[in-house]
Structure formats: C-alpha cells, structure tokens
Amino acid sequence: MLALLHQTHAPFVVTVLAMVFTAERPAVAVADAHAEINDALDQLRAAGYGDEDNQPLPAGTARDLCRQWVQAGWLVRQVSADDDAEVYRLSAYGVGALEVAGRVGGTRTRVSESRVRTLLEAIERLAQDADPDLMSRMVRLHEEIQQRQRELTRLEKGGAVETVDDEQLLEAAENVLHLARELPADFARVAESIKAIQRDVVAELRHDVRPTGEVLREYLARGRRILDATPEGRAFAGALRLIGDPAQIDGLWDRLRTVLRHRFTELLPQQQRRELTEISRRIEQGVKEVLAAQRQASHVITTQVRNHDPMRDRQVDELLRDVMSGLHRWVPGSRRGEAVEPLRRLPVADVGHLRQRTSDPRPPQPPAPLRDWDGSDDLPAADTRAWGGPRYAELRAHLEAFADGAVAVDVVAAFRAADEEIRRPVDLLGLLEVAHGAGMTETTEVAVVEAVRPDRTRRRFALGGVVTANPARVDGSGDDD
C-alpha cells in the first residue's frame, strides 16, 4: 500500500483505480478495464499531460500497466464464478490505498464530541467485558435501568425530547463515515487471507511429502474451518455473528433511512450522502465476497484432494522442467526473430503389432475320452427319463386320441386331460410344438393350466388359447421321434 502511495505516478494510479473500481462495480472484466484505462490515458495525453513540463504519465498501454499492478499486488486477476470470464479486483492493499487517499482528500478528520463519545463507549464496553465480577455487573445494570426509567418517566409526564443541533449531527455523521470507510479494506484482507490459505494447501498437496491419509485428514478439516485459520478470519467470524443476521441488516437500513430523512443531511456534500446511503449495501457486499472466497477455497481444496494424483503431478512437473531446460539450451544459440517450427501433432511410437491376447503357449489338449459303460452300474433310467425333455410320441398319441377323429382339437383341454406322466411343464412346451407342426391357431381367451413335476410339485401356467388340427388328419406330418 505504501509503495502505491509513494511512487512517482501515484496520483494517476490512485485516480484511475478509483474511477474503474467503485462500490457498485467491485469486479471489472479484463477487456473493459483495459478499454477504460486506455481511454483515460488518451484523454490525459490529449490535454497535455505527460509532457516534460507537466505531470508525468506512466509509459505503456493499459494492458502493460494492469500487468504491472497485478505483479505489484494492487490488483488481483481471477476468473469470475458467474460467467467464467476473467476479471480484475482491487487487492486489500489497493483498497487500503484508495481509502487513505479518500480520507486525505475528503473532509478533514477532527476531534469531535461524537468521536470522543465513540472512544469512551468502546472503552466502557471493553472494561465491562473484561471485568468478570458479578456484583459490579449487577450495579452497572441497575444504574442503567434507573437512568432509563427516569428518562421514560420524564417523557411520559410531557417532557420535551432533547434535540441535538445540526453541527453535532454533522460531526456524528462524519464519524460514522470514517468508521464505514475502514470496512472494505478489512473485508478484502479477509478474502485474500482465505485465498492465500487455499494456495498454500494446494501447493502442499502437490508436493506429496506426507502420507495421503494424513494430508486428507488435516486439510479437509482445515478447509471446513478456514475462517479460524487466520487472525483476520477469526475477527471476521466474530463480526459475522453481529451483521450476519438479516434482521440486523434490515434494522441498519431502517436507521440509515431515518438519518437521511433529517434536515441536517442537506448540509452534507453529495458524496457523503451517497456514502451514508451505501453503508448497508457495502457491508452486505463485503460479507458476500468473504463467504464466496470461503466457498471457493473449500471447493478448490476438496477438488484437489479428490483428484490428487501424485504420479501425474510429478510427470507434469518433470515435463515442465524439460521444457524450461530446452528453452535455456535453445535461447543462447537463437537469433532475434528466428522462426520456430511448431509441433503440430504429438509423435506416435512405432511399435508394430501388439499382441492383443495372452494365453497358454502350450497347444490345447483334448478332453479325456469317455469311459465305456459295461452295464455294471445301476443307472436310474426312470428318474433320468422323468426329468428329461418332452415325450413327443406320447404327446402326439394323446392329442390324436383326445381329438377322437375331429378336425380340430383344443390343446389346453387336451393337456388338462393328460396323465400326470405327460403333464409336466416341459410336456406343455412339447405339446405346443406338436400343435405348431400340425397347424395351430391362437384364440383371444387366456387359459390357466396346472402342470405336475416329477417330484409331484405343481406349477400353474397362463397361456393364450390354442386350437390345432388333428395330427392324424395332417398328411406328411412325419414322425417327431
């Protein structure tokens, strides 16, 4: 901040920063800032500034000046969270320099009754908070209650409200403005301290010096309690308990409207009236900036922890070091303006044909031959046949017998009339196959049949009605065996 105020072109820099960055526009797009600063430079040079006998102006374009101001720490260049566009913001040092210049160029600070009263009240509250004695606290509260009660009794008896002359009100308003001018720089310092913690955490994660589990536990906890990590953050957390309540902000705005309706505000300059009007909004804006910086820092730290890949980070670092080493080797032997052939595509490794499948290099062996059955083992032929496939011959014979010479036969009725040995679930499918071979026709009705498994358990199946031609009347139907 002192470097900004003491440099040769401080009047120009302070004026331009105050013109571009206002309370209504704390962030300015990079292109807009360059255009406005270039326009200011052109107007000043056209008016004769920048000559040897006149006020000197910095050399270079607006882009060069903004780059210098970013390097000096007066501006911050970042990506906006709203539209992903690059913007400039005043740093805490830039805000502090503008506040100092505004106080010096504004109304002269003077010892006033309001300022002394503010000091005395602050000392009194400090003493009350520091004194833990119960009796002293009770005595002070009783004295305050009695004083308030006497004032209330006097007003109830028709006493007049004590008025304050306009001069004292003006002094009090100047004191309020003096206190309010300190807030933007304080908010900016808190936001920058949070961003500094974010950079330190990400850098520590990228170094990968400690075990991953330890890094996760420490920095995730630090990201959740980021406001408690700096003195500015702890002070802001305390202030947030006072001004973070919407009712407090609404009450502040109501009191400011009461002040602005008073006739003494007509004696204030236009700029001071505007500052009084904007106190509530500037407090809200400062709180939002700090909370946004906290959310962004927590998001960046959490994302880095989740996506942290030490091997990949080391590979990127090694690649960047190789690039810088190559530039150091190439620059001494190069000439000014020498063309560099760009790398239009990455090289492809010529490795020929890669093997796509790995298998046993030994040739495949055939399975062992089946053992000849000599009939010595007692195979459960009946059980094996019962759990086998459909019995097509028995099903055809049953369907022909059930038709009894008719042209068409109902397959569902035929299955219901069959013996249990050929009324298995698989026999239902076999009967439908026989009907399909003879030429079946589906009906619209839905029928439910009950099949019997070899273990005598029963299953119910629903199917559409099927009518088929009598297999005995179908010529060339063949044998399904």
TrEMBL record:
Tell me which InterPro entries the record gives.
DUF3375
Q: Which domain of life is it from?
A: Bacteria
The family database entries (Pfam families) matched by this protein are listed as: DUF3375
For the region Disordered, give the residue spans. 350-385
Q: What is this protein called?
A: Uncharacterized protein DUF3375
